[in-house]
Amino acid sequence: MRASRPSLxxxxxxxxxxxxxxxxxSLGALLVAAVWFTSARSDLAEAYGLVGSRQQALAAAxxxxxxxxxxxxxxxxxxxxxxxxxxxxxxxxxxxxxxxNVGQAPLTRQEVNDLLAGVARSEGRIFGAEAFELSVTRAxxxxxxxxxxxxxxxxxxxxxxxxxxxxxxxxxxxAP
Length: 176
Known about the structure:
Elements: H1 4-87, E1 95-107, H2 109-119, E2 125-136, E3 154-165
Antiparallel strand pairs: 1-3, 2-3
């Protein structure tokens, strides 16, 4: 029995060394795996950040592309509108401009009618009003009352731009 004892001790010692060696190798492998995992995790976070910034850049580029496409559509539409305007004789060289500024002027009803008829839209005139106000001078007078013998004047405020044709459409340099 004694002979088996040293071999048992020897085996236990060998077993302990083997176990420690296996434990050490396993611990080293675990450390290497932990370092690799930490590195891979930080690389993954960096990759997600890079993907996010690339997606933002892509969204911004798509928005700029849509804006550019809209500008192209607007430019095409403006070109078509200019071509139509030229076809109808609405070119800048064929029109003159007069600024009209009448401020709180007392005028008779006939003078108001004549002035408004002079700026009314027609084939040869376009009026763009910035301000227009027509009022009576007395509280007992109505704007749409029939004029009598002594009708008080109306107050007229009229400000704007009158465009008038200086050339007949289709004739270069022609008079109206």
